[in-house]
Amino acid sequence: xxxxxxxxxxxxxxxxLILIVVSWVMIRVCDTVWxxxxxxxxxxxxxxxxxxxxxxxxxxxxxxxxxxxESTVTTTNCPSSSSSDVQPPVSHHQWxxxxxxxxxxxxxxxxxxxxxxxxMQQHLxxxxxxxxxxxxxxxxxxxxxxxxxxxxLEPMLGNGIIKANGHHWSFQKKLxxxxxxxxxxxxxxxxxxxxxxxxxxxWERRLSQSNRLGLAxxxxxxxxxxxxxxxxxxxxxIISRACFGSYxxxxxxxxAKLRDMQEALSHQSLVFGLPYFRFLPTKSNRxxxxxxxxxEDLILKVVNKGRQEASQKDLLQMILESAATDSELHxxxxxxxxxxVDNCKNIYFAGYxxxxxxxxxxxxxxxxxxxxxxxxxxxxIENGSLDNMDKxxxxxxxTMVIQESLRLYAPSVMVxxxxxxxxxxxxxxxxxxxxVWSFIPELHRxxxxxxxxxxxxxxxxxxxxxxxxxxxxxxxxPFGYGTRLCIGQTFAMLELxxxxxxxxxxxxxxxxxxxxxxxxxxxxxxxxxxxRLIVKGV
Length: 538
Fold this sequence. Notes:
With 538 residues, the chain is of the alpha+beta class. It has a domain at 36-72 and 86-152 and 413-477: Uridine Diphospho-n-acetylenolpyruvylglucosamine Reductase, domain 2. Helices cover 56% and strands 9% of the residues. The strands form four sheets. The chain has a five-stranded mixed sheet, with helices on both faces. Strands 4-12-9 form a three-stranded antiparallel sheet. It is globular and about 100 Å long.
């Protein structure tokens, strides 16, 4: 009898325990899916922040998907240059309709600051000058990169400096940022020049071969280059040599695989946390997982070889030395390897693709504006050999052109932050959990800030520097803002100056009649159909 009673009591205790666990799980789910989003939206709404009406669970996802589909249909039905002998004029703003169209549509309805939802994720778009300034000055670790985005991009970036938050981010910045200070980066000018001259030699051979065919046999295509492909290869060569030294060939292989991974991860839906089932064994996900394993194995092989040959002073070796002196990493081999692997991925993404794209867009703009191309070329020739920082710093016109190109075609389209605690932004109280976004193309084309010619290519606006280029210089953010400003900014600007100055001193560029201006978003803004330019020797 007592045994029977004990069994009943035990069963009841188990039932109570299961009930408590189930109730706790249900409360957590209810809070995550319904209560927390409602609290965030209520807090913002009480402060006068409006936005589109949000539905339970889906938020504004269906509206966003509908707008994206309409935008795709509109873009597809637009006449292209391939259907006519006459090339349509290149617009520097019409293509934005195909990149996050809902951001622009809602901005017209609700202004420069509004909220929207993608199910559990609550977003606040901020394109107000004074608030952008506040964000740039905010130094607390309570404002970081969106955690859900970090998880989605883990195969590509791991938990490296681009996506890390809090103490882990500040720790990585302390070790890595010094390797990109000017006094170290300027020592890479010779490497950049050497790599660029190798590509120039290849171009000159291609031009020479087509010229030997004779004018009667030569065609327009003989001098037409897909310059974005070549510049991508050049940028990979530079960053591979800078990062991996004598093992640069393995570095280029790593970058090729990472670019395949980038293509697989290029979903607009990923950015705002729209449904993206990264755990399911889909064909795309299996490909991503395979590439992730291969990339990490390749990086570790290079790291181990680098440790054995500590005499070479490449970027990877310098980071290894910094890690070796840090007590947090020194005692944990696995943590050290994770630190190196993740940040090698980050250096690829930030220092390879973005620079190649920026150079491509700049050459396209100079091809459209031959008068500026000639001004830059004359400045380069006047300054002679550009083998040191002092000479490069004298290229004021080229600097203006690069800054204007980054204004119109910044590789990134969004700056994203998540509030990890309640924070104050201007007169507003932002609740914990809200995601703050700023749409770079809109900031860089705002006529109230840049003037009525905001949509035009006018490098002279930067003649007095960024501080005098517009009414609110804080709204110029091609490299992000605040404490999370891109640590590779100096490296990128130096590479752009070296590459463009060498190319423009030897070649002239004009737009191919087959070029189709169709920038698309694939984690970065890139030419959908390639950058087709006519290249001629000067």
